[in-house]
Fold this sequence. Notes:
The structure holds 2 protein chains of 2 kinds. Chain A is of the alpha+beta class. Helices cover 33% and strands 24% of the residues of chain A. Chain A has an 8-stranded antiparallel sheet, with helices on both faces. The two termini of chain A are 47 Å apart. In chain A, 39% of the residues are buried. Chain B is globular. Chain B has helices at residues 3-25, 28-44, 52-73, 75-83, 94-105, 108-119, 124-131, 135-153. Chain B is mainly α. In chain B, α2 (28-44) packs across α3 (52-73), α5 crosses α8 and α7 (124-131) crosses α8 (135-153). Classes of the chains: A alpha+beta, B mainly alpha. Chains A and B meet through α1, α2, α5, α13 and α21 of A and α1, α2, α3, α4 and α5 of B.
Amino acid sequence: MSNREFYQETFSQVRGTREIRWENYEMATHRKGLKHLLILAAAITVIAALSGLAVAANFFGLRDALLPEKGSVSVVDEKGVVVPGEREFKDFISLSGWRDTPESKALAEWEAFRETYDPDGAIVREIGNEPTGFEERYGNYLVYTQEMAGKLEEIIEKYGLSLHSWMEVVLPETWPIAAGEFCGENITPYSGYIYENGTFRFDGEAELEAGGLKGYGVIEYQFSRSVRGTFDDVALNIGDFSDFEEWGYQAADGTTVTLGLGARNRSLILADLGDSFVTVNVLTGREGDDTFSSGPIGREELEELADSFRYSALTPVREPDQDTILAANARYMEELQNQPLETLPSESQDPLYTRTGIAASVARDFVLLLAERIEDGRREEVADILVYPAQVEVSAGTFTVNSPEEFLPYYDEVIGQNRLGLSTAMTWELTPVESQIFSNGSGLASVADGAIWFGLVEDAVIRVFTIQTDQAAVRAAGGGAITQDAGQEESFAALSLDEGREFLLGLADLIDHGERGEIANLLAYPAQVKTPGGEWIANTPEEFLAFYDETFGAGGSTLSADIRANPEPVLDSEGSLASAADGAVWFRRGEDGTLQVLSLQSDIWLWSVQYWEAQP
Amino acid sequence: MDKVCFTAAVERYQNTVYRTAFHVLGSPQDADDAVQEVFLRLFRHKGSFDGEDHLRRWLLRVTVNYCRDILRSSWRKRRVSMEELPETPVFDKQSQAALYREVMALPEKYRIVLDLFYYEEFSVQEIGYLLDLGTSTVTTRLSRARQRLKERLGEDWQDE
Lengths: 616, 160
């Protein structure tokens, strides 16, 4: 057996556990813009986790909603890790109604077909990365062959059903417009999605006052309303049907619902509203669920949750208006984006963060980690986190090093011989409440009485700019070296967010309009140009124009779209360098005072243009 | 990218992305997160791919860059993960467990080169392109990693 075969045989057994589904990303994408708002941060974390669970469990149902055949799912061990290659059979329920309805019968037939069709994924692999032609009519269903399309048509014709034609994301405050006032005051819906016929689903939370949850905590749930007459291919894995204690209950608005209290960490609320069917997948049960809920629930809590929805507001079904939903979503996003970010507590209460962009707790962790590495003599790991190019000052003179490898020969003289002194000075005064890390307004932080200076070189990346002892030093070249004599003035005004944003949007305009000459003039030179065809150095705008068609001409619109989607620049700690669009663009103020682009990268890495710093 | 293509890409390359992320990050949990993030980027990707190979390289490039960002930015998380031993899969043979152990004991920069060379079967030139490294650097790292594996695994790892 060759080494390659040995390696492949071994690491083919290393597999992840996460299930990736298109549907989850559809919701997650529309939530992305909310991430920076503290008020929603916790909720979004929960949503992400819920989505993960929904994938893993794919859950809902009771006896009259059970699909006739159990469904196969991956086996999960005690730690929640999927056991590769092992499947087990679980009870599934239809979200479309009781089992004898046309919708649920259709779902059962489709599931039975799907269970045996393309079981090893060979067909979908053969189709590869090309459009199938089935997207327009079957875009809301997993249909990728004519045989699947034919089967689906056969089923919906047999049961007199139609197919979903469009789906739209609904943001939290848009639900009343999209589906009516069906949530009680203790109910918080997160974003979800709605179909053209009024079928919708979302994750949410509810504050309860009943039983053991009184006064604290929330219950997490997933809410589904399926409207009759349209085929819906969603089924829910409920594990073992016999785990549920079931009873009928008249909810606060007079609607009769079926409640199922799970023996473990799931419960159900089912309501047949005639023209639609409601399923609430409650993410806790008698055992509780650490991830999704405050604790276990009993009958009282489940009944209170059932009382929290106004089912009668959901019937008769009112078909949603897509334009109205889109307009309401846009208003909601605008409101969120106008909220000032200054309210973030980390910025107002942490002076080190304000001055350096590094939270005090993060700085402490960094210092401890660096001290540990220095003390242990982990030379390469220390060298890896220095800023390059750097100047090394040792007894033999001053030298420039451009990489960790070039620095390592000097390591012992600069750091190694002071290993214990440095690490002790970094840590001995460091306590959880009173840090000896400080910043003098330069944008960098210092520890060990000025022996070590560190800071952000790009968003959230910490690097060491200076390590200096009585005998030797290594300092970032190009103005990065900081001493204790550095000025005390704040110096963040070099590049403002507004200026950066305006520059980026202007750049996007130039790209869209193919203003090749102006774009070339914005780049810093010499510039390294990388394309699939090779790598070159352009020393002037004129030289760069020769590569324009291979770079911006080949993929500029995607880049400009990315910039427009996220035109907020991220400034470095000194306000002298900025990035945007997830690092696709880097720019700074040049010596002549104008802004210049240091690097641009196409989103699929097909090409890049990068300032090529002169090598010593 | 439409749903069918996306699903096919997940089917075909999820393990590739996971394995590569695991080689870089050394943590099953972080590698799972990387899989989720990389396919999110694929989901958002508006361009097309010039065939399967292009898609595969794109995914690997995004994976490597995402993982590097994680290693660079998340000091707290990284510190924790260094202190915790990753969960070890159960292997069919003792020699496989030994190889896994020795590979994961190597620094990240050697692990990723091993993965791309031995598992994904890229040439050193291709690895250099994917990792933004010179060919000589890739060769050096590969050579050192091989040497280390030979030292630790003895006859289970052949001379090359």
